[in-house]
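Running this now, will post back.
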Amino acid sequence: SHHSFARGSLFVDSSWILCSWDANSKEAIWKVESMVYALDSEPTWMSPTEHDEHVALLSHLPHALAAIMVQMANELNQPELGGNSWRDLTRVDGNYPELWRQVMLSNRDSVVNQIDELQARLSALKNTLAAEDSKTLLDFFRRAEQIKLGHPRKPKTEKSALITENAEIDSGEESQTHSV
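Update: finished.
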C-alpha cells in the first residue's frame, strides 16, 4: 500500500483528463471541475476513446518501456553505471506491479496500438542506423528537439465559463448559484 509515497500535494498542479457522457448533469460536471480547479490544476475534456489513446502513450507505454529497459540492463555486467538519462528513463519502473498489470490489461487495445507505432518507429530508426544515414539521424533528433521545445507545459488558462459564470444548478428543489 506504499503509504510512504502519500503527500497532500499529490494531485495539486497535475494534469486532469475529464471524460463526459450524455448522462452527466451540469451539477456533476461543475463539482468535478471545481475540485480540479481547487487543486490549482487545469482540466482537459476529451472523449473516453481519446483518453485511452493519450494515457496509453503518455502513461502506460513509459511504464512498460522502463520495465523492459530495467530487465535488459539486468543482463549487463554493471548496470549500476547508468547515468542521469538512465535514471530519468527508468524512474517509474518497480512501482506497483499489480496495479500496472491491471492498468495495461484494462486499456490493452490502445496500448497495443501504441506498441505497434513504437515498433514501426524503432524499425525506421534501426534502418537509419544500419544505413549509417547521418543526415536522417540528425533530422530525427532535431525534429524531437523542436517538438519538445514547442510544447512546454501549458500555462494555466481562465477557468471554464461553467465555473466562472456563477453557474446555476438545478438541484431539484430550487436553483442554486455556485461561485469558485
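The first helix runs from residue 26 to 38. More later if anyone needs it.
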